[in-house]
Amino acid sequence: MGHSTHGKYSELYFSLASGSLLLIGFLLSFWSALPNSVSLVFYLGAYFFGGYYTSQEAYEGLVKGNFHIDFLMLLAAVGAALLGAWAEGALLLFLFSLGHALEHYALAKARNALSSLNELIPKTATLKEGDVNREVPIESLQKGDVILVRPNSRIPADGLVIQGSSQVNQAPITGESIPVDKFAIASSRKKGTDRWEEINEENRVFSGTINGSQTLEIEVTKTSKDSTLARMVALVQESQKQKSPTQRFTDRFERFFVPVVLVLVFGLNFVFVFSPETFQESFYRSMAVLVAASPCALAISTPSAVLSGVARAARTGILVKGGGPLEILGSVKAMAFDKTGTLTQGKAHLNEIIPLGKCNSSEILQMAMAAEAMSNHPLAKAIYKAGVEEFGEQNVIKADNLEDFVGLGVKATIDGDLVYLGNLNFFETLDQGKPSPDILQEMSLLEENGNTCLLLALKGDFLGILALSDSPRIEAKNTLDLLHLSGIEHMVMLSGDHQKVVDKIARQVGLDQAYGHLMPEDKVRHIQRLQKTYGRVAMVGDGVNDAAAMAHSAVGIAMGAAGNDVAMETADIALMGNRLDKLPFALALSRKTRTTIKQNLWISLGMVAVLVPLTLFDVAGIGPAVVMHEGSTLLVVANALRLLGFKNEVSD
Ligand code: ADP
Ligand code: MG
After folding, report:
1. Which is catalytic among the residues 70, 145, 158, 338?
2. If you measure from the C-alpha of residue 546 to the centroid of ligand 2, how many angstroms do you get, rounded to a whole number?
3. First to last CA, the chain
4. Is 338 an annotated catalytic residue?
5. Rounded distance, CA 652 to CA 312, Å?
6. Which residue among 80, 144, 615, 635 is least packed, with the fewest CB closer than 10 Å?
7. Whether residue 630 has pLDDT greater than 80
8. pLDDT digits (tens, 9 = 90+) for 392-429
């Protein structure tokens, strides 16, 4: 859309030129001393400026074999000219081009709300090389480079703080403008060993966010094109191509409707054959009907609403990938939530280690730590953290061949011996001895108290039980209550954890039902079952083990888009910065968008339904048809733009 061959506003200037020439010509036509041809010259000018962009677009459509609305409008204007109704034809082209110019302007405004995110990232960074500071373009930054961020300036790269502390406004990423404390990561860490997801919130910063009053030294962890903000913008822009259900419907409707209009209009030219009127009169009527029946407003009604809705969501830290999810979320009746990392904080704590005879708890922890060294799971991080606290990073035993089993545990070798660490399901899949009734009894007791239990086995011997727990997010209960109030009938928890732990968390956050012991494919099965009962179901999750379930649900919603890559890629909607509490707002915005789209369809189709009979029966001529037709287009766009300012009573 839009032609950038000229300046940003040239479409608008052309349109205004057309309007002015039309007005002058019209006024001159009352001066009887002048010959008519003087007015005609001005009308011709109005035709040129008013029809310039319209004919370009019509031509582009025709080349591709599409009859677009631009073509209908041009046809009507040419028809009016043939009738000698130059003023009405010029009015048509003027208003149509004005409508188009404003529409493009409005859409550009909504689109800018998105791409302006990109502009938040500074163009250059201050690279620190020994004692020298050098200004470099951000594209040249490499992982491991150290950059200096001055007070009150934007942070140019994703990275971790290695020197200084400050308060950072992370609104571009999370939508939350209250500054967050950031401070330097412990200096004992080995350079370049950290994985982005594992760095604590308080140590990592995002490009595009705004540094507070202190200087920060930052080690770059992501190159500029991989930065969280850059990827977020890329994902949204790509998803703009995904059309919403209504959009697909209106596209199909238009494709069938435009030819019908053309046939009807063609037929109307022959009314004079059957009735006592001239060809001129028949032709004039056919042109009026042509204007009345052109579904301009219809074509723009959904895209404008979708774009405004997506932009509004992005401003508050909700990434919506296109019109589909934006429209569908509001119609969801049931929601499924993953537990770990979604309803809970995903920051487990190692509460207890219970040795089972052969080793003491310190040895168990060292082995567990080694085996979990590469895993991304919250439990792995908790174990690793507990280990670092006890031994520091030096003492770690080294494990090899580390392997992750989603929803089960990890496998590794230590000094050539096989080590398994995971839940009971895991050991059922392995061909080694089963844990004794005593061990099971012990685990059961711990689970009753809300602990997630893992077993560590070396060479087929069970060495110890590790008991961990993870508390619910503070906002979880309130968020679920609000969702209930907004009419979500059924909410369940789907988790890979032990049923007892799952039940405890479910009680704490106020959930209807909770299912534990689920493998990724079981989560999919539950989603399918829920969809049979409730129609559309949304799945909220945070990790690899939720991806399949998210893909099978009507809307997949990811937590921690600011951290987890898999979730970000699979989801239809991502809640930046793990903000579960943004869900009620997302739901409300989706519903508002649906309402807006419906209103727009009524306005645009209603106008066609009213205008077509009026022009058919000669109540309205080309002039009034043009005015009402273009008026409805502008009304529809204005209605959509209201979404940019949408507020929700309960939260935003
Ligand atoms: P949820 O579905 O609640 O997010 P997960 O599917 O991520 O939970 O994990 C389910 C269970 O799988 C965990 O409770 C744990 O028993 C086991 N598990 C998964 N990953 C690991 C790991 N890296 N180390 C130990 N156990 C793991
Ligand atoms: Mg999870």
Report:
1. 338
2. 7
3. 32
4. yes
5. 11
6. 144
7. yes
8. 876 678 888 888 888 899 999 999 999 999 999 999 98
